[in-house]
Amino acid sequence: MGYSKKYLPLFLGLAVGAGVFLGSKLDFNNPSAKLFSSNAKKEKLNRLIDYIDYEYVDDINTDSIVEVTVNRILENLDPHSVYIPPEELEGITESMQGDFIGIGVTYYSFRDSISVINTIKGGPSERSGIKAGDRILMADNDTLYGESLEREGLANKLKGELNSQVQLKVYRKGEGVFDVVVKRGRVPLQSVDAAYLLEDKLGYIKINRFAETTYKEFKIALDSLKDKGANSMIVDLRDNGGGFIAPALRMADEFLEDDVLIMFTKNKKGAIDNNFATSDGDFEEGKVYVLLNENSASASEIFAGAIQDNDRGLIVGRRSYGKGLVQREMALGDGSAVRLTISRYYTPTGRSIQKPYENGNKEYFNEYLERYKNGELQSADSIQVADSLKFKTPGGKTVYGGGGIIPDLFVSKDTTRVGETLNYLLRTGRMGRYVFEELDKKRVFYNSVSQEEFDEKITIDDEFAEGFLAYAKRIGIDIRLSNYQEQLKKYLKATMAQQLFGTDVFEKILNEDDAMINKVLSIYKEE
């Protein structure tokens, strides 16, 4: 008896679908809960796969069929239930844990060797004397230079077990080749990009994601700014796509009075889990401003919703993304995992900020682009809201559900799109590589420059900026920024500062003349 290939996904889909259905009924809070009360369904899937392996008329990769089938099932649930294959899970896990085991450098594969961009502050390489511009030639017996240098897998040659040692052979301009032993350690993946005083008593903290270490980083930054005299705070969550919920709850707790509702979740059975502020908050007085844009999602929206619904501060910017679903990860036993939506979350007034997804994933993700077309990013009047989704805060302010957090104070997007172009060049690494190469020509000088000297004496001239445009053109990017030289120079200097001193100085430079920050400053000075 034979079957056409087109029916294989259907058979597998039914079997895997049964598994997902049973998984949805798990008591995930009970660690003794088992995925299957009996092995009947599991055995059915195993037997089907074995049958295909041994008997199907053509050679076929059953692993790939299972992955395709799992993806198809999840796509039909909601946009945020996803399958994570083994080759991606490690990197995602590291990012969300907030650290990894390694030597603590960022680097480029530059020409024929690994070139250190900078060392992680307080990390193993900095402690061992590695500097920006150094070339790592060998790691133990692994050669890391030459025309045949393989870019893939380089990171794995520098990673290893915690406290294990690796002997590096390093070349440094002006000093030649030398050996250095580095003890591998935990290297932080920072989620707090910047923390500094904008005004004498106005602090600024920028957070790029919500990882396991985010609250700890945030708390250190908050306490430091308080010690410097800050009694008002800007929390910048622009382009923060979210992550773990717990750090967002603890951050909100810092600003909210005891026993105030932060948010609640509701699952398919209607069970409600409330999250309240505790007595741990250290910033329950003073002004709070939260910056959002169309890329702020998930945990960012939980934090902003708690601040807005409790009349604790002002939300400044543009309507956030609109993700109000909660996922839980389940390992599948082969290095892969599924993140399944298990509940919805609601802001303290009872709003769901999840945007509709009933018409499929394509329309769901295209909604993001529709905001460009309908004028919402330029005018608050173009934001489409439903009267049926009106809610009132305790202070009497009207807020809306149904698709993101709508700001209290709207700031339009730059219509020239110059910022988008420059951010694209940053994200893709083009600007960073150009700046690195220019720094490398005078590495000894730049490594001796202090941050104060950099701020006061280092300027980006026309030649440097024109050199970047020529470089971009050589690698196939023809951009026209002749009318925006000052913006380009600012981004180039910020990138240079990032490579020399880190993200704090980078953000500080980019924030000069920032529209949202200027909006906050104008209000702050009037109040």
From TrEMBL:
Listed A to Z, the keywords are: Hydrolase, Protease, Serine protease
Superkingdom of this protein's organism: Bacteria
Q: Tell whether Hydrolase is among the UniProt keywords.
A: yes
The record's section on Gene3D superfamilies has: 2-enoyl-CoA Hydratase, Chain A, domain 1, 2.30.42.10, 3.30.750.44
Query: Where would I find the PDZ domain in this sequence?
Result: 89-151
Decide whether keyword Cytoplasm is in the record. Answer: no
SUPFAM superfamilies hit by this protein: ClpP/crotonase (SSF52096), PDZ domain-like (SSF50156)
- What does the entry list under GO cellular component? outer membrane-bounded periplasmic space
Kindly list the biological process annotations in GO that this record carries: proteolysis; signal transduction
Q: Which GO terms describe its molecular function?
A: endopeptidase activity; serine-type peptidase activity
Q: Which NCBIfam families match?
A: prc (TIGR00225)
Q: Which family does it belong to?
A: Belongs to the peptidase S41A family.
For this entry, the protein name equals: Peptidase S41
UniProt source species: Aquimarina aggregata
Q: What is the lineage of its organism?
A: Bacteria, Pseudomonadati, Bacteroidota, Flavobacteriia, Flavobacteriales
